[in-house]
Amino acid sequence: MIINGKEYNKDNLGKVFDYAMLGHNVTREQIQEHVRMAIKYNVNGVHCNPYWLPMIADMLEGTGIETGICPAFPFGCVDTKTKVWQVEELCKEMKGRPSCVDTVVNVGLLRGGEFKAFTEDIKAVADVAHFYGYVCKSILETPFLTDQEIADATKCAVEAGVDYVKAASGRSGVAQLREIQIMKENIPANVKIKHAGLGETNITHIVISGLAMGVSLFGNGFAHKVIEDVERFYKDLVITTK
Question: What is the distance between the alpha carbons of residues 10 and 232, in angstroms, rounded to a whole number?
Answer without folding.
Answer: 10
